[in-house]
Amino acid sequence: MLVRIVKMGFYKQNIEVFLENFENTKTKIRAFNGCHLLELYRDKNDPSIFFTYSYWDSEEALEKYRKSELFKGVWSKVKPLFNTRPEAWSVDKLESLD
C-alpha cells in the first residue's frame, strides 16, 4: 500500500475556499479506483497549513488519479490558493497499530 502525504499552505483569505472545494470533491477522490482512504488534517499551530493523507493500491493507481480529469479539476481550483509551494511524499506503509 502506498500512502500519499501532501502539505499545503494557504493564504488566510483562501482557507474557506479550499475547505469548500475539499467538501465538494472528497467523495469523488475517495471513490477513485485504487484509493482506499482520504483524510484531511489541519496544523495545530498554523491554521493555514493542511495535510492530506490518501492510501492507494500502488504508485500506478496514484498516477492514474494524478492524470485524471478529476485531479486536473481539483488542482486547477486549489493551486491559485497556495501561499507556499505544496510538498508531497509517497511512502510505503510498513506497520500500523490500533
Give an overview in words.
The structure is a single chain. The chain is an alpha+beta fold. Helices cover 36% and strands 31% of the residues. The protein has three helices and four strands. It has helices at 15-31, 59-66, 69-78, and strands at 2-9, 35-42, 49-56, 87-92. The chain has a four-stranded antiparallel sheet with strand order 2-3-1-4. Strand 2 and strand 3 (49-56) form a beta hairpin. Helix 1 (15-31) runs antiparallel to helix 3.
Which features characterize this protein?
31% strand, alpha+beta, 3 helices, 98 residues, single chain, 36% helix
Main-sheet strand order equals 2-3-1-4
The oligomerization state is: single chain
Count of alpha/pi helices: 3
Average pLDDT number:
96
Query: In what range is the share of β-strand residues?
Result: 25-35%
Rg over alpha carbons:
13 Å
| Distance between the ends | 17 Å
Query: How much helicity do the residues have?
Result: 25-40%
Shape: globular
Low-confidence stretches: none
Major pleated sheet: 4 strands, antiparallel
Quick one: how many beta strands? 4
The H/E string reads: EHEEHHE
What would you call the structural class?
Answer: alpha+beta
Quick summary:
The protein is α+β, with helices and mostly antiparallel strands and 98 residues long. 36% of the residues lie in helices and 31% in strands.
Structural topology:
Elements: E1 2-9, H1 15-31, E2 35-42, E3 49-56, H2 59-66, H3 69-78, E4 87-92
Antiparallel strand pairs: 1-3, 1-4, 2-3
